[in-house]
Amino acid sequence: MKENAENKFKDQATTTVYEGADAITAIRVQTLSNALKRLDVCDDSVGTVALVQSQPVLNALIKAAKNRKVHIRFISDIRQENLASCKELLEFVELRHLGNVRGNFVVTENEYYAFAEIKESKIPLQAIYSKGRVIVEQQQYLFDTLWNSALPARVKIQELEQGIVPVSTKIVRGIKEIERLAYALIDRSANSHLYVAIDDREPENRETGIQYVKNLMSKNPKFQFLLIADIQKENSNYYKAIIKEGVQVRHIERNKVTFILSGDEYMSGEPVGEQQQSSESVTIPTEATWTNNPEVIVQMNQVFQTMWKSAIHGEARIRQLEEGIEPQETKLFEDLNEVSQIGAKLIEQLRFEALIIAASDKMLLRNREAFLNLSKKQEKIGVKIRVLAPLTDSAVSDVIPGAEWRKVDSTRVSVMIFDRKSMFLTQYSDSGANTTQEAVSSNIYSTNRQTILGMVSVFEALWRQSELRESEEKARTQLVETLSKEERSRRQAQLLQDILTHDIRNYNQVSKLSAELLREKFANDPEVQTLIDSLLQSIDGSTSLVERGRRLGRILSEDTVKIYPVNLVESLQRSLSLVRQGSKERVISEKTVLPEGLRANEMLVEADDLLDEVFSNIFSNSVKYSEGHNVQLGIKIEDDDKYWKVSLSDQGIGIPQDLLSKVFDRYLAGARGSGLGMSIVHALVVHRYNGRLEVTSTQEASSSGTTIHVWLKKAR
Questions:
Q1: For the whole model, what pTM was predicted?
Q2: What are the distances in angstroms from CA 524 to CA 518, 519, 527, 529, 530?
Q3: Which CATH code is given to the segment(s) 2-162?
Q4: Are 457 and 505 in contact (CB under 8 A)?
């Protein structure tokens, strides 16, 4: 339906098409003027210039921002040709950049209008306007999605003005293009290093592949080429040849991960089944991901290093194949009878030591018969048995009377290690169930030396930790007359416990890699996939807890700290971006208020590279304790004499008044996580940066939320 400008403002939920420059200008001005609290604008690069040049539209936009204090969010494709217009808009709107955005639209609380791509900054001749609730809500959702994917305008403007190479990530499709990009990446890496992980295939033309590697290695005598592969009999000669050319090769059984990593670039391919033959008979993926994002490169470097440490040296693997030696293995068992038979055989073959981590006391009581055989072995040949268990049931110690016992917390995983050569890892859906069938979720058997040594280290760390706990309890009873000594002993013991768990993180990675390999093997079995996903989730949770403990231990134990000026606004932006990446299922929006008349680069604080930890922990808590899909955050920076005061607020469930004084305590009861996050914030801000912290919170029916106030010293 087409109408003229006289009847275009009917107050009803309709959708209308307007034509003519006057009518379109009028409806644009009217929509901007009707906005009460929120005004969201998306313009392409030409549309931004046209808006600034249209005085009526620009005046309506400025009036909404300044007179009525409407929050205006603006998305545009910021380029050299519209840079001046974008800088002008920055004076009164919150601007972000989205590359190659097409189309132009505006959405407020109740209205929406849009028009097609603008040509040569001319006013469009046709526009769509709607007050329909469903349409407005749909377009609002679209804008929020684009907004969350967009880049802060100041970052993009800095890239354009300073010639900075932008960080980018792209999906590459087609064998030819992937092949071209991969070879270009490899050639560029010859100046430094190249890390590659690949499955069990190799070039059909081995001589061509070997010659390519030889040429690559000859370009730079210092070039480091590390390769992880699944070395089998059919491809062992190829890897033997490239090892002679200087490539460092290691083996991972059934490796299905394929990626290339240099100092500046990362490229990964899809699973094996989707790959095809290239023009040079090399099996390559038909779709790949490429990025130069430094954060991704750092993360994947850690992944590669973890894989590299757990992998077998290529020369040793080739000797195994040539000499017919049985390789180490890791298997997932579903049949409990088979598990019982293997366990009985391992006890029968046991010669000197058994290490046991019991998920619960019930686990030991359920398997009394098997442990009775273990006790007989101990009596017969003097096998040493050490057990870590919750020890809440006095009858447990009678199951293996000659064992050494230490107390640990209940878990969902049991581990049994035999002579440090073989191991069973059992995960439970309910470790306290009456029968094994009801309790067990999965059983993993391994003879992999690296995996077993990793779990032995975990056991020894927990054993020492338990000893420290016992020592701490004795010390408390002996030193009650001196409270200061008791407090110092407690802090030292806690710090040492945190440090002792540091290695668990690395060994969790080994366990995780083994579980992921099993997931690849049993990809067609949904039940096994569910069990492995549960195991991976448990390992990830353990790794996250250990990492937080490690960070806190580092903060508390450092004797000397090097402090230097850090850009406060950039740290906030990095932290918020990191939290958004980790909470992709939530829509996180924030409103930032800076001191009037100051620029972001003028707000420097005395800190170091751990400052991001402060804000990422606070933002993470805001997301955890906010209900619903959308999370609203507020950031306000104020000048407070010698400090920059940063107030970070949310609209979450709030904190009870009786817990406000305990927010920064370590292992806070009832926390949705490890309970370490806010203690890390306190350790950094107060002890490391000599700042201050304050928490305010409300839990009223009409409104709720929490604000963390952070004072950081200004840097000169």
A1: 0.32
A2: 11, 9, 9, 8, 11
A3: 3.30.870.10
A4: no
